[in-house]
Each structure stands twice: as structure tokens, then as C-alpha cells.
Description:
Layout: H1 7-12, H2 22-43, H3 51-74, H4 76-80, H5 84-113, H6 124-166, H7 171-187, H8 189-206, E1 213-215, H9 216-234, E2 238-244, E3 252-254, H10 258-270, E4 277-286, E5 289-297, H11 300-304, H12 316-333, E6 338-344, E7 347-355
Helix pairs in contact: 2-3, 3-5, 5-6, 6-12, 7-8, 7-9, 8-9, 9-10
Amino acid sequence: MTLRNTPETTTSRAFLPDLCEARAVLVVVVMAQLVAIVLTLMATYYEPFSFQRLGLTSFFMQWVGLTSAALICALRQRLNRLPLSWAALAVVALVVLNTLLFSVVALLLPTWVDPGPGPVLWHANVVVNVAIAAIVAGVVMRYFYIQEQLRLKGEAELEARIQALQSRIRPHFLFNSMNIISSLIAVAPEAAEQAVEDLARLFRASLREGPAEVPLSQELDLCRRYARIEGLRMGERLRVGWDIQLDPTQVTIPLLTLQPLLENAIYHGIQPRAEGGYVQVRVARDGDMLEVLVTNPLPVTEAAAGASSADPSASQGNRMALDNIRHRLAALYGERASVDARANNNEYRVTLRYPIA
């Protein structure tokens, strides 16, 4: 059970869960009670079932389980900075010592109530309790270790997806942009210079390696630059509206999350229409959630067919972008994050929702 930890993974990972949370405490209580029931039922092989034995065993297991969880919670940050194998061994040792202490206290307690001959501290019950604690703690640590490996594997796969998304700039967009720039150099050099700057900023963002989240204002700047370049090619056919109902410098968004949605809206919704269309980008706060809505008209063929499916576009590229964004939001914000894409009333709507501080 070994793993090489780089400084980055050592400080950012959380091998041990937070046992101070209410849900974690409930899990500890339930597991301790289940172990108490199992031990009591096993004892019926040698003597009749006794509710008194069940009560005493449950009381002992709950005290050991809750105090061990409290100690692990208090030392969690320090333990998570250790290599995985050392952290697991430290937790097992902590649980074993805690069990040993309570076993000795439970053995001495009757003599404190009714003074008499002192019991032998190294009693068979103490050895059994310590052995059970070591086995249970070892199994739980093994489970946490496997969970950590699955998490690291998921993060690696997610990082590959993010890199694929960030490095994906449509070839036709690059060629069209270069043709537009070359045609503008002679007649509108300032517009050509602005287009080069916008294109360079987009490529720099696609190749960027850094924090997963950026200020919303930075993502909106990329979107406006992308829309400006596409506007040079499509002219009045492309109209983009921005409805930003909060301060974009005060909230964050994963890099290249909104820009691919705008790209898909223009590529799938505006470009196929001879008359063009209107793309609406709306960003608002809904309680502790950030809601991003991108709408565009459906292509004429889809609108005539009455498309109303919740499935994303038939385009593989569109599905890939939405799937990548969905996985990124889930990895960063958990189950509360959502991506909803649907066609309705001749309009295609993509809605992102995720919690913000």
C-alpha cells in the first residue's frame, strides 16, 4: 500500500475524510452498532442471547468509535500530509491505542464501583478487543486507500479531458480567421491588428496550464474576443447579447467553460441560417448558485422538424464539449452542479448551474 506523493498531491489530497461532519458521525455510529450486534450474535454460540451483553457491547463500541473519530478528526490535517501508507498505519495505531485504553478502563471499572481483588490488566478480553480494532481499522483504511486511488485516477482522466477541451480550436475557425486578417490588412489595418490580438488571446487560453478556475470577467473577455472574430466573418448575420446581472470580477468559473458554449451556439445555431440569428448570454446569481444561460435559434431543418429533445446536438463535437463541461463542473462543485441542454420553441438552451461562495 504505497504511493509516491509529489508536493502538489500531498498538500491537495484528502486521504482521510472529515469525520466531524454529521453524515460521517452517523456512519461511525451505525458501523459501531453493527459490529456490536455481530459480536453479540457470535457469542450466542457459547451462551444464550443477552440484551445486557448487547447493551454493554454497544456502549463500549460507540465510545471507542466516536472517540477514535474525534481523534482522527482533530489530527486529520497532519495525517493527510503524511504518505498514504504512514497515514494509514498511524490511524490504525491510534484506533488500537484508543481501544486498549477503553478496554483497560472497562476492566477496572467494576473494581472502582465494588472494591475487591484487582483484575489482571492483560486480560484475554483486552487482547480480543485490540485485535478486533486493528482488523476493523485496517479494513477501513484499505477502503479509504482504494477510494483515494480511484479519485486520483478520476482526476487524471478529468485532466486529460480538460486538456483535450482546452486544446481544441476548430481548424476551420483558425483558417477563416487567418483569411479574414489577411483581407483586412490592406483596408482596415486596425481591425486586422485587433483580430490578431483576439486570436492570440484565445490560443493562449487554450494552451494555458494553471488554476482550474478563473474570474468570470476573464472568461467573458475571451467570449467577446471570439464573438468579435466571428463577427468579422459573419457580419450582421451574427448578433450577440450580454446580460450579466452580477459583478463578474467577484465570481469564478472554470476556464474555457462559457467560450465553448458560445462557439457551439454560433457554429450550430447561427452559421447554418442564411439570415443569421441572435445569441443570448445571461449570467445571474440564484441564491448561492451561479446560473449561466446560453440560447441560440435552431437551424431551419431542426426547427421545422419540431426538435424538442433534451439530448444535446447531433454533432459529436457539441456533445464532447458539453460532456467535458459536465464532468469538470461535477469534479469541482459536486452533485449540485448541473448542465442542462435542450431544444424548445425553435430555440436551443444550455444552462449551467453550480454553487458559488
